[in-house]
Amino acid sequence: MRVKEFKIQSFVLILISLILGFSEFIIIGILDDLSKEFSVSVATTGYLVTIFALVYAISTPIITSTLRSNLYHAMLVLALVFTFGNALTIIAPNYTVLVISRIIVAIVSGALVSLSMTFATVIAPMAKRAWLVSWIFSGFSVASVFGVPLGTWISTTFGWRFTFITITLLSIITVLLIIKTLPHNLMQKKQGHILQQFVIFKDARIYLSVFIQTCSLAGVYVFYTYLRPIFSKTLSFDAGLITILLTIFGVMSLISNQASGRIADNKGLRLMPVLYLIEFIVLITMPMLLGNVWSGTIDIMLVGVLMYLVNSPLQLHIMGVAESDYPHSLVLASSINSIFSNLGISLGSAAGGLVVSNFGLNNVGIGGAIFTAFALISTIMLNKVNAAKQTVY
Asked: Residue 236 sits in a domain of what CATH number?
């Protein structure tokens, strides 16, 4: 019975991340449609990604550090706010209301990821932690595999508002599953004062992890934010093929997350410098490779395989440090990865907008390579600190 219960609860936690990913990433698939609907440039609609990620990064530590009540109740309230925000998007009459609705969704999304990770550490036996963490992250990749292409198809076929109707209905179903399956009595242990929880950021193992995650996602999102325009404008694929290509890219990112779990179970962060070096080469050569449809497409798919490899090793590293030395900061620690992922997304998408506006779509890879180089250097430094402290992740 316990095994069956664990499987059901794991499914719900993965489903939460899938819906969160669907809601967050769908903007990338419908940039062109929103641009036409509200008569703004593609670069301007691209800043929806920046705004969402920035609000996400700012709000998540504030919410998670103030959670003192029953964590199940907190998750339920946040899930209802998330549902409301997506429902507001459906009826947005103008670009301003659209931005407001996205801000509402962003405010609670990070805390929901954090709570999912916290629930995962409670319900999963030690041998299954890396598996469940990698699958919670993979929920976002599944959203890329199925959600973004499906949402893009719905948008081009019926209109972008029907995409958010779908997201809202799925959100309602998820809320009902949360009520039915997750433990109702989970409390954060040994939580201290808000400022006391932030002491964790004084640890070199944490602030280097933060910098790695920020630069890693920034490097990817300089490019990823403009994936659909690259397919449609730079590589000149038609709309039908773009949906297929987005699906393939999503499969690549899913492979990335699953490989991330395997890396976490084996060499972990010690392997990441080599992988970042490969990613740097893939991104720095992108402007040249985009000159040909085949080489450009292959290069893009390679980015998909590489983009999430650091997630599980870094998440387990941060949680391990928190459990060992900062137990009063456990929920905040569980949110660090997602907070600074979105800070990286915000930074990368904003940088991507500047690159596109000033240098064109073809050069987004160079901007991504610069951030990836910083992630590479920071990972080497973190591995040295871990070796000195005899911290093995």
From this structure: 1.20.1250.20
